[in-house]
Amino acid sequence: MRRIIPALGLALLSPLVAEFLLGDFPITHLTYLILLAPTYGGATVLIRETARRAGLGWPSIVLMALAYGVSEEGIMTMSSSTPTTRGCGYSTAVTFPRWASECRGHCSCWACTRCGA
Description:
By secondary structure, this protein is mainly alpha-helical. The chain has helices spanning 4-21, 33-54, 58-76, 96-103, 106-115.
């Protein structure tokens, strides 16, 4: 029980930081945490546990969070293939590095690096 509570707190805190603190959803939609916790929270706990068990430091956590952020934004929300998604869609006129730097997994990476300690 002593180890589950911090992991559960981390899993619930990461979508709170990623979506609500950055203003994607108003606080009145707090029930969205039920849907967002497995996505953001699962990744955050996995990144943290991987870094802790492998003895890696903050640079590794940031790199894993960036990798998750780009994959989450590009694959799950499909912002890499939809030009109108959050204004930073990937099209033939926009190169992938530009899309990755503009979107940069903004909420995913933010949540993982801010809560992953």
